[in-house]
Amino acid sequence: DMPKSTSPTSSSSSSVHEEGRPRTPQDPLKRPKMTSRKSSGTIIVPREHPKVELGEDDEEFDEDDARAMSPRRSSQDLEKMSQDARAQLNEHAKVLQKSLLEIFNRIEAVKEEHDKLDNNNKFLQKYIGDLMSTSKITSTGASGRKK
After folding, report:
1. CB 51 within 8 A of CB 45
2. SS3 83
3. Cα(29)–Cα(14) distance, rounded to whole angstroms?
4. What percent of the chain has a predicted confidence (pLDDT) above 70?
5. What residue numbers bound the domain in which 120 lies?
6. Whole-model pTM?
7. Residue-wise pLDDT tens digits, 16-29
8. Phi–psi pair at 73, nearest 5 degrees
9. How far apart are alpha carbons 26 and 17 in whole angstroms?
């Protein structure tokens, strides 16, 4: 705990503004005084700690330390990992290409079926149109005879 200062400025109003008027944008919040801020003592390393320099091979960690569980990878390991990743990507690309080709073939088949049905539809419309026109002729001729 720091000793409190007895000067009048240290107890200046940081939370209560003079004359009790509300704060305005021209009157920004003041930074809290040192005594009201929380200590950051947990992250401070004491100076008495001896400075230890380790070489790359000298590092030793506890079993629970994450660095001990995942050791540094050599360039051969990294090369093998990148080759494996490339192989996986190539396999994935082949699967996607095969899938795309199947979709394309399906689209072609549906398109052919659509064209065939469209032609049949046009033929039927023409046929029905012809039937209607001939039936009009025969119906007017028949009714004419009845009279």
Report:
1. no
2. helix
3. 8
4. 47
5. 76-138
6. 0.37
7. 545 555 555 555 66
8. -90, 145
9. 13
* Secondary structure of the chain as H, E, C letters: CCCCCCCCCCCCCCCCCHHHCCCCCCCCCCCCCHHHCCCCHHHCCCCCCCCCCCCCCCCCCCCCCHHHHCCCCCHHHHHHHHHHHHHHHHHHHHHHHHHHHHHHHHHHHHHHHHHHHHHHHHHHHHHHHHHHHHHHHHHHHHHHHHC
Q: Which residue has the tokens 């990294």?
A: 78
Q: Distance (Å, rounded) from C-alpha 127 to C-alpha 121?
A: 10
Is 123 among the domain residues?
yes
Q: Token pair for residue 31? A: 């930074």
- Give the total number of structural domains in the chain: 1
In a domain, 111, yes or no: yes
Which pair of structure tokens corresponds to residue 42?
């947990």
Per the document, the length of the chain is 147
In a domain, 132, yes or no: yes
Give the type of residue at 92: H
Helices (H), 21-74: 66-69
